[in-house]
Write a structure and sequence with these properties.
Layout (H helix, E strand, L loop, with lengths): L1 E7 L2 E13 L5 E9 L4 H13 L5 E6 L3 H10 L4 E4 L1 H10 L3 H15 L4 H15 L4 H14 L7 H7 L3 H14 L8 H21 L7 H7 L9 E5 L1
Parallel strand pairs: 4-5, 4-6
Antiparallel strand pairs: 1-2, 2-3, 2-6
Helix pairs in contact: 1-2, 3-4, 3-6, 4-5, 5-6
Length: about 240
């Protein structure tokens, strides 16, 4: 989430700007929604997803995000059965954050190989090798790896050509950084409405650029793959951060 500062009742408080982007069934990247709230609060994510659904969002095939517990619960409520990809970049940082400094380099290399695995079976073999090598040197890191392993490798079931861009929320964070760069001159918004207007205006510019520019994905391979899936509904890939 993008944290901004808003004046409320003669005080200045931090508020999270929650932004959702998506990749449409024809491979075009889109801005889907913006709301202000608490990024750790399930109710904030619930409000956002309810609004997106009320405006016609459906057929979501994959949600990519960091491990926000409130967001996961809201997604499960509004899009039952949807696949969730935990951001591998954030997950890697979480694992390394629990490791002794001396072990972070070799552990990062091993995890890089795991995240590049061709199949879930190969990834499980690599995971077991990593745990065998590091369970005594970095036990908390191995607990973290075990806990989040399955959710971090959801994209392994997708065609390889799409995995690099679907493995993390990096594209969303770059969008947040660009919005931050352009809204920084404000410093403190006088109220939430003014924040919505300015950030919404910036996001509208990006939406227009994306809709008239090169497609984010060539979806031909995706649709070939979808024919083998049990659900053949129109699909959208949703990224939230």
């Amino acid at each position: 989430a993008l944290v901004i500062h808003v004046r409320k009742d003669e005080s200045v408080v931090p508020v999270a700007a929650l932004i959702a982007t998506g990749i449409s069934e024809d491979g075009q990247r889109e801005i889907l929604g913006l709301t202000l709230g608490d990024s750790e609060n399930e109710a904030s994510w619930d409000d956002m997803l309810r609004d997106l659904k009320s405006r016609g969002l459906c057929g979501v095939d994959l949600v990519i995000s960091d491990d926000h517990k409130g967001l996961k619960k809201a997604v499960q409520r509004h899009f039952q059965g949807v696949r969730w990809q935990r951001c591998q970049v954030h997950f890697l940082r979480n694992i390394l954050g629990h490791a002794p400094v001396s072990q972070r380099g070799p552990l990062a290399l091993a995890l890089g190989r795991l995240f590049r695995a061709d199949t879930k079976e190969e990834a499980r073999i690599l995971k077991n090798e990593i745990i065998g090598a590091f369970e005594k040197k970095a036990p908390k890191s191995m607990d973290c790896l075990e806990e989040g392993f399955e959710e971090s490798l959801t994209i392994v079931s997708f065609p390889r050509k799409y995995r690099v861009r679907l493995r993390s929320t990096n594209s969303q964070e770059r969008l947040n950084e660009e919005v931050r760069r352009r809204e920084r001159v404000i410093r403190i918004f006088p109220n939430e409405d003014s924040a919505i207007r300015l950030i919404g205006s910036l996001l509208s510019e990006f939406h227009e650029q994306w809709s008239t520019g090169k497609k984010y994905f060539d979806m031909a391979k995706y649709w070939e793959w979808k024919k083998q899936e049990p659900l053949k509904t129109p699909s959208l890939l949703l990224v939230v951060e």
